[in-house]
Every structure is written in C-alpha cells, then in structure tokens.
Amino acid sequence: MLNEGKQETAKGQEVQKVSPARALSPFEEMDRMFDSLFRRGWMRPWRFEWPSFPEMALPEMKLPKVDVIDRENEIVVKAEVPGVDKKDIDISVSEDTVTIKGETRREEQEEKGDYYRCEISRGTFSRTVALPAAVDGTRARAAFKDGMLELTLPKVEKAKRHSIKVE
Predict the structure, then answer these.
(1) pTM for this model (two decimals)
(2) What is the CATH number of the domain that holds 117?
C-alpha cells in the first residue's frame, strides 16, 4: 500500500517524492555555477584558507607612502611614517636608491575595577625606492617632523656632453 507522495521501489523500499523547487533564471544558474567553481578552487587548487574566527585578525603590514620629487639639483623624498619615533628610523642611500626602515611599538593598558586589558603590538617595515638620477649620499640631509620624513639628496654632477669628430 502506498502513502500519498511516496513510491515503492523494486526492492520494497519507500522513496519520498520531492516537489520541484523554483526554477532558476539563466542568470541565477550562471552565478551559482561560477560561485561553486571558484569556491571549490579548481582554478586555485593550492589556495590556503585562513580560519574565519573573528577574534583572530591578521597583522597589518603597511609600507610608508612615498613621494619622489625630481628637482634641478636635488631629489626630495617625502615619506609618511606615522607612529614611528625618530630613533627607530634607519635610512640608507646608494647611488640610485634609498631604503627607509623603521619599527613601531605600541603598548596599551587599561584597568577599571576588576577589568584589566594590556595590548602590545610591534611591527617593522622596509621600503626601497628607485631614484630618477644618481645622488651623492654623503651630502644627504634628513628631517623628521609630525610623522613626515623628508630626505634631500643632492644630484651627482654628470660629465658635460661634448662632440667627438670621427677621423
């Protein structure tokens, strides 16, 4: 005997009939197909998934924003380094590059009654910038004020151009 909505197979097992779901439009079907392809990662089989715990945040890695200004006799490099102390900045200059390294340290403590919170964060950065002309690093000057680093790098005098007569 069959119940309404059920069918019996050849082996005597009951199978529940499923009513069809709402048909998807061609656009919805395509979206679903692309979502499943990219979610499964067939194009990126070695992809690493980070855990999705809200309290587990990745450390931010920030590089300083840098402006390079090419003037007639010098090159000026301005870099934003907020939260960095002057003593924690290291600058090295070669003929055609400048490297700015730094370290940030921050410690917060909060105590209210039975509540105590202490957070310590540290971070380092290093940014190397190619210069548009050769500079004399021995005559370079650096100024630091309110999180802005300004380097003034005098250009190396190039040999003057002259003509050679072919004999």
Answers:
(1) 0.54
(2) 2.60.40.790
